[in-house]
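> example.struct
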């Protein structure tokens, strides 16, 4: 697929710029160690950091009204663990701060920084994420004009409005905005349905393509790293 005119680019964060799985694993291990030190009876409820993750997921399933509110879900699950262990539930806020700080400690994929440097010198960049990563804390904010999170905007990908807001923020028409992300349904279909162009980032093993939808099969560019995108946009070598 050949790209049309590109005046600005939006990028997903988790699993596009860094591994979300690795980041979350580190954050939950950090939180687990903190709880064992400051609320030691939680060991009976949360013997491992995996149990902490499972409790958080169970809490989300039992509180569907909180879906997308990552802070409330994490604090709620921590409070539940503290209560079950007969520890002080007021520790949940401090525990969340520990988790959130660790969640911002990311390791960028090797191709990301060279690509962002090249792209940001030529296009306005806007981050669009359903998650709670903060580029001011992870690093990399200097390359972006703005960050749009689902929590701040009030709608999440694949809702068309968050993509159209990204185009307005970049000062361009949706048709001249390219969105780049790893999730086919959230990023590719969402962007195409909003009138943007899309690049599907597939790192490592080939991802399974969902059934074709109204967005249009093969209406997107598929890349295996961000430097591939740079070359598609004219970079001689990067």
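> example.seq
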């Amino acid at each position: 697929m050949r790209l049309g005119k590109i005046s600005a680019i939006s990028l997903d964060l988790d699993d596009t710029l860094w591994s979300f799985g690795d980041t979350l694993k580190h954050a939950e291990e950090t939180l687990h160690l903190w709880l064992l030190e400051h609320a030691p009876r939680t060991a009976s409820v949360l013997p491992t950091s995996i149990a902490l993750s499972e409790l958080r997921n169970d809490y989300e399933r039992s509180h569907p009204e909180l879906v997308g509110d990552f802070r409330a879900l994490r604090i709620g699950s921590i409070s539940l663990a503290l209560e079950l262990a007969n520890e002080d539930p007021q520790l949940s806020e401090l525990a969340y701060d520990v988790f959130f700080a660790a969640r911002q400690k990311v390791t960028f994929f090797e191709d990301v920084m060279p690509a962002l440097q090249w792209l940001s010198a030529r296009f306005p960049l806007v981050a669009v994420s359903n998650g709670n990563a903060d580029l001011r804390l992870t690093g990399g904010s200097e390359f972006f004009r703005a960050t749009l999170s689902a929590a701040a905007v009030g709608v999440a990908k694949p809702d068309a409005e968050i993509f159209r807001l990204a185009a307005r923020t970049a000062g361009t028409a949706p048709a001249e905005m390219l969105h780049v992300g790893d999730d086919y349904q959230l990023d590719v279909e969402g962007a195409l349905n909003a009138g943007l162009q899309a690049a599907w980032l597939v790192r490592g093993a080939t991802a399974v393509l969902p059934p074709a939808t109204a967005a249009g099969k093969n209406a997107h560019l598929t890349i295996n790293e961000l430097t591939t995108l740079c070359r598609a946009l004219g970079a001689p070598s990067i």
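> remarks
Residues 20-38 form the longest helix (19 residues).
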